Amino acid sequence: MVVLKVGVMLKTSEIKRFIEDDNSSEKKRLARQGMKYYEGEHKIMGSRIFYFDADGKLKEDTLKSNIRISHPFFTELVDQEVQYMLSGEGNFIKSDNPALQDELDTYFDDSFWSEVYEMLTGCISKGFDYMYAYQTADNRIGFQWADSMGVVEVRAKDTDDKTEYMIYWYIDRIEKGKKTIKRIQVWDKEQVYYYVQVNDGNVTLDRDAELNPKPHIVTVNEKKEKFGSSFGFIPFFRLDNGSKQFSGLKPIKNLIDDYDLMACGLSNNLQDFTDAIYVVSGFQGADLDEMVQNIRAKKHVGVSENGGVEIKTVDIPYQARQVKLDLDEKNIYRFGMGFNSAQLGDGNITNVVIRSRYALLDLKCNKLEIRLKEFLRKIIKVVLDEINRNNSTDYQIKDVYFKFQREVITNASDNAQIELTDAQKQGQMIDNLLKVYNILDDETIIQEICAILDIDYESIKDKLPKDEEKETEQIRQTLDNIVPDDIGGDADE
User: Fold this and answer.
1) Which of 65-79, 298-312, 415-429 has the least mean pLDDT?
2) What 3-state class would DSSP assign to 297?
3) Rg of the Cα atoms in the chain
4) Closest CA to 376 of 406, 396, 400
5) 236 compared with 281, residue with greater pLDDT
């Protein structure tokens, strides 16, 4: 966040300074760190080995093994949370009004949720991320993900929550591998200004932009005349990963670094001690390189009468490292609140056991869901305003609700047993109703049976037999039981 003097329009020099100050801020440094760990660029990649030589000088050891392998636990934890959060039937924005639901589906389609997926990934890995509204080719509002690393909030005061301008920049291309072309957009409540910057040079107006500045919304009439309007606000929406905007990496970074160090240390030990150590006494010769070559190539070496060659091997103490690796992995999933797919069970993996392993991930997603709903309500309000304006309707935010149903893998045999138990329970409840058939009226009995079988009574009640038909049938059955069959036969004769 940067601060602007009230009533002053942004100058190109200010735009450049704001971007540089924001890029060097502590907030963006931590966000950049989370992004690097999500991409597998861990601290271990910069590992170097040093030693003190005979003169007491510190030097880098370039001969000793220095294996550097990143173990991307954070990548898995972020993808887990995003996938689990967005699992289910797909569209999570619902309305009981069919007409409104059709309108919402045109805005919140697969393209929208793919942008939400990118935003959630950035929010969890970096601590916060953005989406912004724009005018689509269909002349309606669309939403797109904006990488938080390229978004700068410009405010009038340091303590003010009101944003005066929003600077959004991104790398358009790199020409000939040297010249970096940076596109810059400056948004205010009315319009968008377009700029361009080459490498770290001056910021200049973008001459390639068709309209500069450009209103938020541009409409064209039948005469090809263009008219501009605005949203009335800066159309950027931010989702935070907690009130302090910390990356999900923060509680587990040190554990991941320790795991990398232990694993790479074990690899280095294995690499350095793969060959046996030859202890040679009474060597006949003056060149040690010759002796080493003879051992490797010819498998023999010349020694004196009292000399000899002794082969020694080194046992690598890997057990302690293995215990530490297992402990680190367990704590990474515990404090990262994730699902450890490598966790072993006792062979009896029931739905209860599976659900318990998702407990921490559920807790983490529940916290994210609260913030995501608050974020989506801001977007839905903008969409409803446009729907009401275009269709002369009066839809309200209360007409829309969210339905997140996160899916968990289940045990098939457990599911079959549950279905059988439910069917038996339904059968028993219907039997109990039939036993009191003579006490309750027919309508009550049928309503209760429909409730047990999950059938809409209102949709079938018109198809049920009428009372007159049932009374006629009851009379006929009563006469059949009272009048003997032979009486009817005598009358015919």
Assistant:
1) 298-312
2) helix
3) 37
4) 400
5) 236
Question: Of 464, 396, 452, 466, nearest to 424 (Cα)?
Answer: 452
* Helix 110-126 vs helix 73-85: crossing angle, to nearest 10: 140
pTM score, whole prediction? 0.75
Calpha distance 77→31 (Å, rounded) = 16
The pLDDT assigned to 228 comes to 81
Name every residue whose Cβ is closer than 8 Å to that of residue 228 and which is 6 or more positions away in sequence. 191, 214, 215, 216, 217, 218, 219
pLDDT band at 195 (very low <50, low <70, confident <90, very high): very high
Could you write out the DSSP letters of every residue in 65-123?
A: --------HHHHHHHHHHHHHT-SSS--EE-S-HHHHHHHHHHSSHHHHHHHHHHHHHH
Strands (E), 358-444: 401-402
- Length of the chain in terms of residues written: 493
Domain ranges in the chain are 2-39+72-248+363-402, 274-313, 412-484
Is the pLDDT at 5 greater than 70? The verdict is no
Q: What's CA 77's distance to the chain center, in Å?
A: 9
Helix axis angle for 98-107 and 359-391, nearest 10°, is 100
Average confidence score pLDDT of the chain: 81
| Calpha distance 158→162 (Å, rounded) | 10
Which string of DSSP letters, residue by residue, matches 138-178? TSSEEEEEE-GGGEEEEESSTT---EEEEEEEEEEEEETTT
What's the pLDDT band for 99 if we cut at 50, 70, 90?
very high
In single-letter form, the type of residue at position 107 comes to Y
Quick check: helix, strand or coil at residue 411? Answer: coil
Q: What's the half-sphere exposure (Cβ side, CA atoms, 13 Å) at 148?
A: 29
DSSP 264-284: HHHHHHHHHTSSPEEEEEEE-
pLDDT for 348 equals 60
Identify which of 74, 50, 18, 102 has the alpha carbon closest to the alpha carbon of residue 259.
74
